[in-house]
Amino acid sequence: MTDRKIKSALVSVYHKDGLGPIVDALHQLGVTIYSTGGTETFIKERGIPVVPVEDLTGYPSILDGRVKTLHPKVHGGILARREPDHLGQLEKYDIPEIDLVIVDLYPFEETVANTEEESLIIEKIDIGGIALIRAAAKNYQDVVIVPSRSDYGTLLDLLTGKAGVTQLADRRSLARRAFAVSSHYDTAIFNYFNEDGGVDALKVSEMRATPLRYGENPHQKATFYGRLEGMFTKLNGKDLSYNNLVDIDAAIGIMREFEEGDPAFAILKHTNACGMAVRPKQIDAWTAALASDNVSAFGGILITNKAVELGTAQEIDKLFYEVLIAPDFTDAALELLSSRKKRILLQYHHLDQQTRQFKTLLNGVIAQDTDLKMEGRAEFTVVTERSPSEEELADLEFANKCAKHLKSNTIALVKNGQMISMGCGQTSRVDALKQAITKAGVFGFDVAGSVMASDAFFPFSDCVEIAHDAGVTAVVQPGGSIRDKDSIAACNERGMTMVTTGVRHFKH
Predict the structure, then answer these.
(1) Does residue 197 have a pLDDT over 90?
(2) Most exposed: 37, 65, 354, 363, by fewest CB within 10 Å?
(3) Containing H/E element for 495?
(4) How far apart (Å, rounded) are the C-alpha atoms in residues 168 and 131?
(5) Contact yes or no for 436/411 (Cβ under 8 A)
(6) Do residues 223 and 210 touch, judged by C-beta distance below 8 A?
(7) Strand bridging mode 100-104 / 144-146
(8) Are 310 and 335 in contact (CB under 8 A)?
(9) Cis peptide leading into 409, omega within 30 of 0?
(10) Could you confirm whether 306 is annotated as catalytic?
(11) What pLDDT digit, counting tens, does each position of 460-504 carry?
């Protein structure tokens, strides 16, 4: 017989919202309710009989409430198997059976998010509540555990729809939820204490799960774990897909580099920018970004650092795109763009990125610091006889940002604040450069007078020679090759200028 009727309940919760209907239903079913502190007061104020835990244990709440339910008369009633030996021990020691445990833990994560005062944070580490959750979940064969206010709805259904009678499947399902809650809580506490990385352990927990239509391909299942609303407000369009999210993440990384300054636009396909430009006017930034590769832009992800204006929106509306991301939209622009019901419009709240990255591979996970470095002219070292002009310096900074966010091996060609072409994901840097030069010609750009950025050093002088023959005048690269002098000499022989950054930006 796996059915169990709830005859007694222990209720000890932090948040009281949503609890009223639960205790009302328990009372209507004749359930004996045990409770503590503020929860006990809440129940009494509803006119419902409640037994203080102090009356059960014979001890008051002590140590400023740190010890209330940690007692054999509480945990014995929860952990006892409903079989003769255990029930006999309960009778011997005058311990009542507890059939239902309702807990809502101290808000540790919220406290960490809202204060840096350690004494307040430490006091929000729940000890008794976690112990109750684990005990009840362990004994799910006989006991119902409700580990969070988010599970009140499930309990209310059991109380009203089944008159407080539960099946084993009900209890096991809630026990599964309980261990998810307790493990998540412990992970949050560990990560708080391990902020400096003193313990080399990977602890990741995310309770918020959003099923996606499918993964990279229709035969793959996919789920997003996180809180997108913390970064974005979705203003229009269909649900985001797995591929959308991967591209959006890449777009946010790119636009972080252009958060300040003139209007910037980037157009992405498969995480790579196929168009990027900065201009004094937004519509010109859009036009220049699109001109970089108006073929790949079809079905792309668009992102800008300024509120989208009507004039820009009218031009964007001519293109089929998947997602448009911006810090804001004028009313007129939003009205126009929202007329395309499937097109996704995202308003971002911030461009912050996580400081650590994780990737599953083989039979484990690799972790690394997120590449948040970006070098500008202050970090450039001129290694050639000729120094860059102001115009070249500006384009070199822009090109370096482009190269950082393109898949390796990569070359970015920039001219007048516009990425006129790029070659990326190639097995050789020469191939990447040749791809970039050819592509520039396809879209009508003259490479003469442009600058070149590479995500890693040049082991030979060949790329400099090819770039010069195409008309490139300046180069930015990390440096660090034992043959740097070959590329530097090739620049000097051709009147080109080269700067090194000392930082490599591989992107696999």
Answers:
(1) no
(2) 363
(3) none
(4) 22
(5) yes
(6) yes
(7) parallel
(8) no
(9) yes
(10) no
(11) 999 999 999 999 999 999 999 999 999 999 999 999 999 999 999
Q: Tell me: do 390 and 461 sit in the same domain.
A: yes
Q: What is the mean pLDDT of residues 443-450?
A: 96
- Which of 371, 354, 444 has its CA nearest to residue 408? 371
By the 8 A CB rule, do 39 and 16 touch?
yes
**23, 91: one domain:** yes
Indicate whether 217 belongs to any domain. no
* pLDDT score for 30: 93
Q: Answer yes or no: 138 catalytic.
A: yes
Unique residue bearing structure tokens 């840097």: 429
359 within a domain of the structure (yes/no): no
Do the beta carbons of residue 279 and residue 262 sit within 8 Å?
yes
Domain that holds residue 294: 228-348
Q: pLDDT at residue 104 above 80?
A: yes
Q: What pLDDT, on a 0 to 100 scale, did the predictor assign at position 417?
A: 96
Helices 72-79 and 84-92 meet at what angle, rounded to 10? Answer: 160
Residue 454: pLDDT band (50, 70, 90) is very high
pLDDT at 1 over 70: no
* Cβ 221 vs Cβ 364: under 8 Å: no
Residue 368 domain-assigned?
no
| Counted domains in the chain | 3
Catalytic residue among 138, 184, 281, 434: 138
pLDDT (tens digit per residue) in 205-256: 888 899 998 999 999 999 999 988 989 999 999 999 999 999 999 999 999 9
Q: List pLDDT tens digits, range 40-65.
A: 999 999 999 999 988 888 888 888 88
Is the residue at 476 inside a domain?
yes
Alpha carbon distance 93, 245 (integer Å): 58
> Would you state the structure tokens that stand for residue 25, as one six-digit string?
């239903």
HSE toward the beta carbon, residue 141, CA cutoff 13 A: 8
Q: Provide the phi-psi class of 65: left if phi over 0, else alpha when psi is between -120 and 50, else beta.
A: left
Tell me the C-alpha distance between 306 and 135, whole Å.
53
Residue 354: CB partners within 8 Å, gap ≥ 6? 370
The pLDDT assigned to 195 comes to: 86
Verify that 62 and 181 share a domain, yes or no: yes
Residue 1 tokens, joined: 């017989």
Query: Shortest CA distance to 107 belongs to which of 36, 17, 227, 195?
Result: 17
Q: Measured between alpha carbons, how far is 266 from 277 in angstroms, rounded to an integer?
A: 7
Q: 411-427 pLDDT, tens per residue?
A: 999 999 999 999 999 99
- Residue 265 β-bridge partners: 277, 304
Catalytic residue, from 16, 27, 234, 270: name it.
Answer: 270
Same domain as 146, residue 23:
yes
- DSSP string of 3-62, one letter each residue: -EE--EEEEEES--TT-HHHHHHHHHTT-EEEE-HHHHHHHHHTT---EEHHHHHS---B
